[in-house]
């Protein structure tokens, strides 16, 4: 198995500091050539807010994915909590939410189930995947990356 793609996304709501949130996205990409990842911004309207900006980043290169997770670990990622907060879709992609305000105010990563968050989608390639195999693989992966 391998991590084939990571997608990070966040919604900037009206009244939030766009520059601060965009800067935090770029901080999480520290050490990654920004021209080698897809950074996309879309503007739209929501139910409550009339002005939203959706920022998403796709990371596909192996070394960039490693760097991204090292950046999360450097910001205090608790691997056990991360694993506890993981959700899966039918293809066993991993979904985790990171507390937006905690990351913006303390520069620390805190996985939680909430609404105002940075969203992570982690795609895992491999044969014979199931929830337990993907979870075990990803736990080993995070521990390995933290030791690099």
The CATH homologous superfamily is called Ribosomal protein L5
Helices and strands, in order, run as EHEEHHEEHEH
* Unreliable residue runs: none
Tally of individual helices: 5
CATH topology: 50s Ribosomal Protein L5, Chain: A
Provide the helix percentage.
Answer: 25-40%
Portion in beta strands: 25-35%
Distance between the termini: 19 Å
The overall pLDDT, averaged over residues, is: 92
Domain tally:
1
Which CATH class is shown?
A: Alpha Beta
CATH architecture: 2-Layer Sandwich
Largest sheet: 6 strands, antiparallel
| Protein structure class | alpha+beta
Order of strands across the widest beta sheet? Answer: 2-3-1-6-5-4
Organism: Candidatus Nanoclepta minutus
Pfam families: RNA_binding
Protein name: Exosome protein
Brief synopsis:
With 148 residues, this protein is an alpha+beta fold. The protein has one domain (2-146): Ribosomal protein L5 (50s Ribosomal Protein L5, Chain: A), CATH 3.30.1440.10. The chain contains five helices and six strands, in the order E-H-E-E-H-H-E-E-H-E-H.
Descriptive key words:
148 residues, alpha+beta, 50s Ribosomal Protein L5, Chain: A, six-stranded antiparallel beta sheet, 6 strands, Ribosomal_uL5_dom_sf, PAB1135-like, Exosome protein
Write the layout of secondary structure elements.
Elements: E1 2-12, H1 18-28, E2 38-44, E3 52-59, H2 62-74, H3 79-85, E4 87-88, E5 94-99, H4 100-106, E6 117-125, H5 131-146
Antiparallel strand pairs: 1-3, 1-6, 2-3, 4-5, 5-6
């Amino acid at each position: 198995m391998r991590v084939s793609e990571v997608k990070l996304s966040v919604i900037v709501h009206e009244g939030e500091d766009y520059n601060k949130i965009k800067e935090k996205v770029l901080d999480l990409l520290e050490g990654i050539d920004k021209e080698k990842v897809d950074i996309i911004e879309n503007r739209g309207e929501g139910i409550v807010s009339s002005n939203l900006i959706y920022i998403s980043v796709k990371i596909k290169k192996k070394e960039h994915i490693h760097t991204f997770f090292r950046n999360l670990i450097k910001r205090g990622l608790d691997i056990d909590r991360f694993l506890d907060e993981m959700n899966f879709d039918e293809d066993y992609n991993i979904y985790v939410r990171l507390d937006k305000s905690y990351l913006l105010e303390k520069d620390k990563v805190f996985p939680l189930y909430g609404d105002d968050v940075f969203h992570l989608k982690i795609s895992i390639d491999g044969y014979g995947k199931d929830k337990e195999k993907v979870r075990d693989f990803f736990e080993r992966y995070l521990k390995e990356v933290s030791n690099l």
